Amino acid sequence: MSSWVSRATESRNAQLITTAVVSGALVASTIFGFQKARRMYRVADLKASIPEVDAEHQSSRMTEYGAASNVFAPSKEDERSTALAARARKGDYDDDLILEQLARNRVFLTDDGLAKLRSAFVIVVGCGGVGSHATAALARSGCAKIRLIDFDQVTLSSLNRHAVATLADVGTSKVHTLRKRLEQITPWTHFECRNELFNEQSAAAQLADLNGQQPDFVIDAIDNIDSKVALLNYCWKNNLKVISSMGAGCKSDPTKIFIGDISASTDDPLSKSTRRKLRLLGVNDGIPVVFSTEKPGPGKAQLQPLAEEEFAKGNVGDLGVLADFRVRILPVLGTMPAIFGLAVANHVILSIAGYPNDYLPSKSRDKMYDGILGALQGAEERLARALFIQDAQGLKIPITQSDVGYLIEEVYSGRSIISGLSTRLVLSRWKKPSTNFIDERTPGQKASTIKMNDLVSMTKEEATKHEKQVLKGDKTLEEVYDAETIERVEKRMKEEARYERFR
């Protein structure tokens, strides 16, 4: 090896080649090193050119959802109103002027009632069409402590129903739009603005006390079902007074708007879905709601299906602002959210002030549910004796009064799935059990393993015939009922299966 190197270095050609290779490597390394140094200098210059993000920087005024919280510079009028409101909240405002502004409320509610309202703390969740009108009415009536919760911003389409928003507010947060405009009317009102999305995880913090004062009332003006259910469930379980606005979309008849218990609200898809999910969480009643009994009809507005081209774009859920957030524009007549919002505010004002507000009560159906439950237990005993065991006396069933109410009202809308009749209703098994449904594992106790999705709503006469021919007899469902009835039952059961995840 050493001899080969010696011979190579003695050759002039080999020396030239070696020199060229070494020189090339040296030049290449020099070029690469220069380029790397130049890149480093350029990156350093670029970083140095980026300004520091301070409180005045535009990016600091964006919410986590990409909405601008303060796009437009305040006008001189806004600045004067803000300064006046700041002084008024510190007490630099003549109380006689406040009482004069509230004079009509004062003589209506009395001094004691108005004093209660002025010291009350109310939370409004959802500051769109319904929430903005409710908030404006509360502030104008004297409520001096209001917390506003909404993650959304004012859009051009908001202006047909929002209580106070103007063109200058488009693109700004709804909570700050409300605060800014209402401070010009009632500068002494303390507004706490939370530009946040309400959900189950944040409920405890967002509905917390204000300086040690528990909320006197919570207003639900949310149009997202999951958030609405989370809010109402939290308030119910934590003994917070709450009133909920059901759907104002596709409604046009103000004479059909009522205030009543959520268990009595009907003819409203938003109300039905809310009631059903709340029942699954154990909340059956005790929540006042504003709802409309107006039924859809020919020529009336309705929610249209999403266009096929939108489905073609891929996952429809990706079109929403947030997960599970509606992606279709709901037809809304601008006057109806205002009426809903004012009805909500009216209830809150009267309740806080202690003014009589007796609404037409809904008829209690608990006695009917008890009757249906007893009839179901008797039917299970008869079926067990006919098919499997002789001694079925005292058979237990895993169905409660609450379950009966849920099935009758929410799943079957208070009607027979067979005929559509609404009188003398009972619950019956739909299919004949193929195996023994009696659980005897507990000594001295027999229990049926029947499940809620085994049951359908029928009239008493229909159930008697069904028991004799199908459950105890040899006839099949196809031999007793037409294809349309069987399809209707199966469709209803599939629909109910989608709600099983909430149990």
UniProtKB/TrEMBL annotation:
Coiled coil feature spans: none
Highest taxon of the lineage: Eukaryota
GO CC field: mitochondrial outer membrane
Database matches in InterPro entries: ThiF/MoeB/HesA (IPR045886), ThiF_NAD_FAD-bd (IPR000594), Ubiquitin-activating_enz (IPR035985)
Tagged with keyword Ubl conjugation: no
UniProt entry tagged with the keyword Membrane: yes
One GO BP annotation of this record: cyclic threonylcarbamoyladenosine biosynthetic process
Topological category with respect to the lipid bilayer: Multi-pass membrane protein
Residue stretches spanning the membrane: 14-34
Pfam annotation, one family: ThiF
Positions of the THIF-type NAD/FAD binding fold domain: 104-360
Function (record text): Catalyzes the ATP-dependent dehydration of threonylcarbamoyladenosine at position 37 (t(6)A37) to form cyclic t(6)A37 (ct(6)A37) in tRNAs that read codons beginning with adenine.
Protein family (similarity comment): Belongs to the HesA/MoeB/ThiF family.
PANTHER family linked to this entry: TRNA THREONYLCARBAMOYLADENOSINE DEHYDRATASE, TRNA THREONYLCARBAMOYLADENOSINE DEHYDRATASE 1-RELATED
Name by which UniProt lists this protein: THIF-type NAD/FAD binding fold domain-containing protein
Protein source organism: Ophiobolus disseminans
